[in-house]
Amino acid sequence: MQAIPTDRPEPSASLSQLFTYPFRIFFLSMTLLGMLAIPLWILQVSGAINLPLAMPGLFWHQHEMLFGFLSAAIAGFLLTAVCVWTQTERTHGIRLLLLWGVWLAGRGLLAFGAELPEWLVQGVNLAFLPLVMLDAGWRVWAAKQKRQLLILLVLGLLWAMQIGFVTQLDPAFSYGALIMALALISIVGGRITPAFSAGWLRQRGKDASLVKINPRLDLAVLVNMILLMLVLVGGLHGLAAVLATSAAVLMLIRLAGWKGWLVRSDPLLWILHLSILWVPVSLILLAGTLVAEWPSNAWTHAAGTGAVGCLILGVIARVSLGHTGRPLVLPKGMVLAFVAIHLAALVRVVTAFNLVSWQAGIGISALLWLLAYGIFLVRYAGILARPRPDGREG
After folding, report:
1. Is residue 157 within 8 Å of residue 175, measured between CB atoms?
2. Is 325 left (phi over 0), alpha (psi -120 to 50) or beta?
């Protein structure tokens, strides 16, 4: 990666620059949503405010983190990566503005649309993921990259869970969506984490072959998670517990093969390994919920705050540097952000087990979340809004 010349000043930031690549506007918007939605939810549930929400408060919170926050992260990453994979022109300019507008309209309608028709609120919110899949799908199809179809399959299942959620307001669909989020982590994290780790070892003259990748094991985890989602939504709790346990074991085997401890000195790498470790943790907690009546919000926050929230922060911190032509050197404070987001997940999980009082646990976890993403916002907003220092597109 080309380093930034020390004698060249940083280009000026501009709003239009955010729409030159999908990762720019969606990573920034996702961060802002995450920093607004969490405190708004706490104020709403505590009775301090009364937003005219288009769905009950708890469902709004779940939807915005699953299909607002996560979907923006998916769009930013996938629509940037797929144009590289397929060597096609990126979505940018007015097309990107319109796509982002659909996402933004969904957030506004849910937060302030209590008096609006359900078909309007639901229709706008359900439009975003299919547009993302369509944008990515035609590129994959034209390039005949069958390997990428697995991501589109999981995205389609995630969308199916969103349809069930917004039309039925049934927690089973939010659980299914979380499992599909873990499946996406399994696919994407399973590609980039061992690859980046092996590359890091190779660059330092170390044995990259120590990092083991097993495609059959990768596929087994994905199939297991899809089956888990189906039986969980179907209410087959006993079978779901078995599948959750087997998926956790398979994920632990994968993680052991990736040898994360070998790259522990690089925060941009250990954040990926540590974040994916939340996947088997959340699956084990899910099994406990199904057979031992452990609190359900333990596994959902291990998955949502832990696996999803932590990995997204790690990925966007790296992608935002690499795709803007900057060295893979973390800006000041980002290690603290990585620690804070993992502590936020840990505190939220132990709060679910009443090891910390609800009010204190929720407050501490929220502050740690805000600290983590707040540091990212401060350190990366300028990076996302400025052209590449080398003058190239990105």
Report:
1. no
2. left
pLDDT digits (tens, 9 = 90+) for 37-48: 999 999 998 889
Question: At 64, which amino acid appears?
Answer: E
**Calpha distance 147→133 (Å, rounded):** 15
Helices (H), 4-86: 22-46, 57-63, 70-86
**pLDDT tens readout for residues 325-375:** 999 999 999 999 999 999 999 999 999 999 999 999 999 999 999 999 999
Whether 304 and 275 have beta carbons less than 8 Å apart is answered as: no
For the beta carbon of residue 284, count every other beta carbon within 10 angstroms: 20
In eight-state DSSP terms, residue 353 is T
CB 216 within 8 A of CB 147: no
Closest C-alpha among 282, 281, 311 to residue 299: 282
For residue 378, is it left (φ>0), alpha (ψ between -120 and 50) or beta? alpha
pLDDT of residue 97: 97
């994407």: which residue's tokens?
188
Distance CA 261, CA 281 (A): 18
Task: For residue 131, count other CB atoms closer than 10 A to its CB.
Answer: 16
Residue 67: burial class (beta carbons within 10 Å; 0-12, 13-18, 19+): buried
Whether the CA torsion 59, 64, 66, 68 is positive or negative: it is: positive
Residue 355: strand, helix, or coil: coil
DSSP 55: S
How many residues comprise the chain? 394
- Could you identify the residue written with the tokens 């959620």? 165
